[in-house]
Amino acid sequence: MDIAIVGAGAAGLSAAYDLTRAGQRVVIYEAAGEVGGLAAGFKASHWDWTLEKFYHHWFASDRSILGLIDELGWRDRVLFPRPVTVIYHQGHFHPFDSMFTNMPLFLLRHFPIWDVARFGLAGAYLRFSPYWRPLEAETADAWTRRWFGARMYETIWRPMLVGKFGEEHVKTVNMAWLWARLHSRTTRLGTFVGGFQAFLNEFAAKVQAQGAQIRLNEPVTGVRSGADGALTVSTAGGGARYKAVISTASPALMARLAPDLPDAYSAQLRALKSMGAVALVVTLDRPLTPYYWHNLPKEAGFPFLSLVEHTNYMSPEHYGGDHIIYCGDYLDVDHEYFRLSKEELLERFLPSFTRFNPQFDRSWVRDTWLWKTPYAQPVPPVNHSRNIPDIRTPVKGLYFASMSQVYPWDRGTNYAVEIGRRTARMLMTDAV
């Protein structure tokens, strides 16, 4: 059976991996010049490793991606260091990433014992309870304010929600989203030797060795259904007919690519909300901080959501001695940061570096890169499970698999692998 896949990210490659192992003929269309999608990386000429354009890591609980890596026999190339995450409180950074050590110490020093007890009980419930569906009926804003208390809400949960979704969405996001983050994530963070792009390149080579074609720099412009049941995938170079098509595009792009979808399904796609992302990568000639991940409250006047010092996670020796800083933010696509140039954003961001290290000087900067994407973080409102489009679209043979459908779980390569493989199984079952 001839199958087309739109997108060579983790979902598309995973679907192709299973389909080609089953003897199917697969062509993957990718608009970019490399595989990887949102997990793709880049590499300066003097680096040994690639670096993700938008910071990525795996969690020790990520069964789908780690299970795939085990199948491929590459587990010995997965690294799981233990970097330190900090939060900003009353003008200082505090380690805050372990339920059994630095989190209770921080809380006991800054909050009444009753607030600390509430934090522990509510946190334990979210960590160990498997029941997320009742939580999606309430916003994370209301739930955390009620169960953690006003002080904890203002210090910890509101800054997270505002940072992730902005003031315009802070009272929209449902509690199942936060449950998923606290329920499944770990403090140990994983990557692949050489970076995510190294893994994705090798995975793509494996898929190609099984018979798949990967067409880079070839964006799909349309998917149409014919009277005979075949699907035509169009690109600037022409069209090709397939028995089935899996699209891993964003919901908005999917709605544009497939005009034969019924109005109700297209409306469902267009109704899904998401945030874009902006990441300014800055290399320095020395460390800026001793920490990896800095969670930053917008109310404190920082011009970005998080500062991530990647080389406090992976050694600078892999990057020619550079010390790598991400300045990242999730924003609506009409935010001015999407219009500003790299130089303009650098002028906005660099003055804040002295708040992390008073000794910082512009002469420390070696190089900069700017990455932007309009589709990075789905926004799940109350009772969002009712909004999720089916993977099987109403057009026979056309399947849709995106990070907007992994709910209640948050986006990431782990869930991209899961939905890609699930879609491949579905397609092969339908073809029998």
Describe the structure.
- α1 links the parallel β1 and β2.
- The chain is globular, with a radius of gyration of 22 Å.
- It is built from 12 helices and 20 strands.
- Helix content is 32%, strand content 23%.
- The mean pLDDT is 95.
- The strands form 5 sheets. Strands 8-7-16-17-18-15-19 form a 7-stranded mixed beta sheet, sandwiched between helices.
- With 432 residues, the protein is α/β, with parallel strands linked by helices.
- Among the domains are: 202 residues, FAD/NAD(P)-binding domain (3-Layer(bba) Sandwich), CATH 3.50.50; 87 residues.
- The longest helix is centred in the last third of the chain and has 19 residues.
Give me the secondary-structure topology.
Layout: E1 2-6, H1 10-21, E2 25-29, E3 41-42, E4 51-52, E5 58-59, H2 63-72, E6 78-79, E7 85-89, E8 92-95, H3 102-110, H4 113-128, H5 140-148, H6 150-165, H7 175-184, E9 189-192, H8 196-209, E10 213-215, E11 220-225, E12 231-235, E13 238-242, E14 244-247, H9 251-257, H10 263-271, E15 273-284, E16 293-295, E17 306-309, E18 323-331, H11 342-349, E19 365-379, E20 398-400, H12 413-431
Parallel strand pairs: 1-2, 1-14, 2-10, 7-16, 14-20
Antiparallel strand pairs: 3-4, 5-9, 6-9, 7-8, 11-12, 12-13, 15-18, 15-19, 16-17, 17-18
